[in-house]
HMA domain-containing protein
Amino acid sequence: METVKFKTTIKCSGCVATVTPYLNEAVGENNWQVDTQSPDKILTVNTADKTKENEVVQKLQQAGYKAEKIS
């Protein structure tokens, strides 16, 4: 399992509720979390599949949010 982090535009619990079905579809329930207290609103995704990184970004765009992978 690998941890991938993204800087996002997810700002609050309402935003988290909006993206939940999209992220659950992309990487599965309980495989992601958003730190809305962080200035960069960090989304942490646990995945064994590197190809999921692009899918996470695409799903967030479908939900109306932006994500940028950080190292």
The first helix runs from residue 13 to 27. Residues 2-70 form a domain with the Alpha-Beta Plaits fold (CATH 3.30.70.100). The chain has one domain: 2-70.
